[in-house]
Amino acid sequence: MISYNIGQIAYLNALRFGLKRIFFGGFFIRGHAYTMDTISFAVQFWSKGDAQAMFLRHEGFLGALGAFMSYEKHGLDDLMVHQLVERFPMGAPYIGGNVHGPPLGDLNEKISWMEKFVRKGTEITAPVPMAPPATTGLGGFEVPSSKGVLRPDASKLNVGVLHLVPSLEVFPLLADPRTYEPNTIDLSDHGELEYWFTVLSEHLSDLVDKAVASEGGTDDAKRRGDAFARAFSAHLARLMEEPAAYGKLGLANLLELREECLREFHFFDAYRTIKQRENEASLAVLPDLLLELDSMTEDMRLLTLIEGVLAANIFDWGSRACVDLYHKGTIIEIYRMSRKKMQRPWRVDDFDAFKVRMLGSGERKPQPHKRALLFVDNSGADIVLGMLPLARELLRRGTEVVLVANSLPALNDVTAMELPDIVAEAAKHCDILRGAAEAGGLLVDAMSNIQDGYKEDTPSVPLMVVENGCGSPCIDLRQVSSELAAAAKDADLVILEGMGRSLHTNYNAKFKCDALKLAMVKNQRLAQKLVKGNIYDCVCRYEPAS
Fold first, then answer.
1. Mind telling me which Pfam families this protein's record contains (predicted)?
2. What would the mean pLDDT of 39-58 be, rounded to a whole number?
3. In terms of residue numbers, what domain contains 31?
């Protein structure tokens, strides 16, 4: 009776304003198929089929979201709705519209569930009410069903769970956070969506091999790897059928989904061994590189440093082209080959403008930047032979440097937890890095026996490390750690390095301060669409403060 009454009142109000669709939400209907059934029937009956009842995916959050989004009325301009983020964990099974037990926290339960899930061939569905067979399929039931049930098939993946992450903040250096869109690739284009799904699927077997190897190749690791592959493949199949199933879909979301699935099956750092090996190999040749750089003129050194960052960015285990290169030589051989091929002009080449800002022109010598945020990408040559020498140059000029790295592992990306050890090893070969690391608190004990033989005054500017608040190859600057937000307040230079952070996301981002975006393009389709170039083209995009 109450549901029919609600349906009639709702239709009469819609009629006043000439509306055809009526959205219902709230605790009264959440998960209650019979309530939705009767409301739908009432709206169809009173409107003679002219209006439709619609039900929201996250109806239980509607009131809270409405209150949260009214922050402008209350002068809370520092809050953003993007602090509500959607994650992709596997929660408790849904059967008959009811949650059966707490979320699956036990790993063996998750694996067993996944194996059973795939054997039965159950389609993935988000935990939302599904219409019984006798419906129009457009939101209104033809006749009321006799009992209140949801689709009664086997356990479903509980995906797209909404979380409030109060520790994540908006990056304060964004020029306009309200218009900021991190994703560069438009996945609303079905062809684009299909292409990237194919790329992720083709990379899956290699990723599983690396994940299993990182856990010793045990039978348990193999079983978890198989379960991960099934779960991720099932998510992709679901998204191919319904791209908006988990909310607005971008390439960054797909990559985040992959990392979430890995962590669900306790693969917390699939490339751990590879990263350690490549860090050691790169650190072994760092002293020679620093000596080479110090023998150059100022102009030549700056160019060589940018070339070094671009050349070292070739090492990316998320790229099929890069994975194929590993079969052709060692990490150092590949790095040297990449450096030799650095020829200007690059596909996007703003180096001259950046050089003027750094070194000036003619008699004019610009003030050095006060603080630079360096968003670093991969382990190995990328960080050791690319970004650390660039950081060293900025420190030499009196600029504070903050290395910004992932909070959680993703592919072979370096993490904030790993950076202090890498910096400590590099500092053994360089007074500049050593003094800056001590000033930034990265080195607790003063080191002796500097191996490169030369001494320079210890700079007063610090070298620091902060985590960015994410565990993905990309970064959404509406959701960064509070530590990064605090470090950004005094920064006047942002350097985004790598495909994920400067091409897949943030290529079009505008900042309040100077920004430099550096990357080697390691995907042919991205090269053609974004910079109208080819694979292995380089991007050096400099944008003064807006």
1. ARMT1-like_dom (PF01937), Fumble (PF03630)
2. 87
3. 1-66+157-164
